[in-house]
Structures are given as structure tokens and as C-alpha cells.
Amino acid sequence: MFATVLPSCSTSPVEVDTPVGDAADRAPTLADVAAGAGVAVSTVSRALSHPARVNVTTRHRIERVAEQLGYVRPGSAPSNGGTGLAVAVLLPDTNNPFFVDLLRGVQRELKARGRHLLLIDTENSAALDELALSRVRGICDGAVVLTPRLSEARLDALEHASMPLVTVNRPRRSRPSVVIDAASGFGQAVEHLVSMGHRRLVYVSGPRTNWSTERRWRTVARSAERLGVEVSRTGPHPPVRAAGTGAAEAVINSGATGVLVFNDMIAISMLQRFAERSIRIPDDLSVVGCDDVFAAACCHPALTTISSPAEQAGRVAVSLLLGGDVDESRSVLLPTHLVVRGSTGPAPA
User: Fold this and answer.
1) Residue 35, in any domain of the structure
2) Burial class of residue 306 in the structure, from the number of CB atoms within 10 Å of its CB (0-12 exposed, 13-18 middle, 19+ buried)
3) Order of strands, edge to edge, in the sheet holding 177-180?
4) Considering the entire predicted model, what is its pTM?
5) Higher per-residue pLDDT: 158 or 208
6) Which domain holds residue 112?
7) Start and end of every HTH lacI-type domain (predicted)?
8) 337 domain-assigned
9) Distance between CA atoms of 306 and 282, rounded to whole angstroms?
10) Do 40 and 52 belong to one domain?
11) What is the dihedral of CA 9, 15, 19, 24, to 10 degrees?
């Protein structure tokens, strides 16, 4: 631990006690500098990476603490070749096409800022999320977390102990995050189905550990109640193609004529299962997906889906992490919209 004495004005010296115990045996970290300067870890990161974006008084205090502690920025060492710092990106599944556009946005913004991307597939495991964030400490200048499983308390603890974090599709209290407002898109989808005469709907839910699953369901349920139609739900289902067969069978037995699906991967697989069962889409059932991945426009019939600004989300996440025009403490909400294609039509008579 470090004991610190914060100055009463900018001209006073900053006193930082010598580390004791285990801390004396390791290199100082961003968190150590932040504790010594009395600021957030993200502020230290920006002060050392983009000095012009931090108040001059705060920056000088951070620089003095960093010098006294002997902190060396990752990437300033010769082993990094002086080519710039890296940012870790944690995602749950490299097989999910939704992340392709999101990663493209992250990569383009990092390139513009002279950073490199360290991609980590945590295989839908909360334990691997935590392990990865711990191991990239001191290697990366921060992390963009696309995995929704870690609790708020664990995220706070990891951020304090290691480096700045920005979450995507996982809002946090007084912490930077980017949220794609898919829930409002599901509200649009309910209105779309009801406008074509559907009176019994079913929501195919995603995994319980995904924050957006319940948020989407609440929007669907409220919209259905407001419009005076019935709605039920099936699941939870993992957000992968293999879940589509079981989800399709559950929908067939639900009596619904309009189906709202957690993501396009499940929805496209469901379309295939419906075809195997000789269920006509959209004559017998109307299906709406979410994310508007590339394959959504290519399957048969083409999938009506909720279009998400994934690439923009990636760019904004990096901007929040590294500093820019966006307030570091706010949650940025990005709008979505419904794209109507061939998988939805009038309710069967």
C-alpha cells in the first residue's frame, strides 16, 4: 500500500511514501500513480499519453508522482519498439459476426491515435475475463470490455488495481460505457408486428448473464401491454447458431405468430429449422432478429432485424478510454432502427 499526502495547492510538493510489503517487489502501476496523485486511473492514463487533454495543474501533479515512484509507461520501453501503446479488447466469442464491425471501429480509432489492438477471446467465461484483465496489466494502456458477465464490483476492483476500462453494452455507475440501444429497436419491432395484425408474440431471450437480455424483454413486454397484445418468452438461450434449433421448436409450440429473437445468429438458425419443419416464413410465422449482421440480408427469406451502429460503438469506446471530446464519466447511448425485410409479413388469417 502507499500512504500519500496531497498538496493543498499546486505549488506544494507531492509526498509519496516508499512502498512496503509486496508492493516494494513490483513495478509501480497506473493505479499507484493515481493513488499518489489523488485522481482516477483514467486521468493518469490520459495525462501521460495525451498531456494536452488534461488540466495543466493536474498533469504536473501526476508527472511528479510518476517520477517519484519510478513509473515507466508500457510502450516507452525498448521492447515495444517505440511504436505506441496497446489497448486490450476483450470479447466473448470470435465466431459472433456482430463483433466484426465493432472491432473494425475500435481498430480504426486506435490506428488514428497511434495505438495497437490486443484482441482477447475469453470464450464466454467470466473467469477468463478476470484473468485476462489481470494479465494485461502493465502491458496495455487500457481495455475495451465487450464481455457482459463480470459484476459491477469486480469491474471496479479490476479497474482500480490495473488500468482504465470502458465497457460496451454494459452501463456502469459513474464510469465510461457505450450502450447500443437495442431495447428501443425491440419496441419498434413490436409495433411493426402489431401493425401487421399479429396479436400473439414470443421473445426468444439470450443468456441470463447478458445485461441486455432483460432490458430487451422489459421493452417487449411493456410495448405489448401498451398495444394490447399477448407476449411470452422462451429461454434463456446461448447467443450462438446452435441455439436456433431448440429455440425454433419452443416457438412452434408457443402459439405465437410473431417472433422477436435476441440476436441474428439465433434467428438465422431458426429460419433454417422452420424450413426443415415446412413452416413458411413469413406466411406462418414472422421473425425479427437483432444486430443486422452481414448474413441477415443474405439468408432466405432475408431477415427483418434491428440495425446496430457497431462500428460507431467501437470508435466511441476508444475515444472514452483514451480521451477526446466525450466526458469520461458518462454512458453514451447509441440509437438503433428496424430494417424490414422478407421475414416479416401480415399475421396468418
Assistant:
1) yes
2) buried
3) 116-121, 86-91, 140-145, 165-168, 177-180, 331-334
4) 0.74
5) 208
6) 80-179+311-329
7) 28-82
8) no
9) 17
10) yes
11) 100
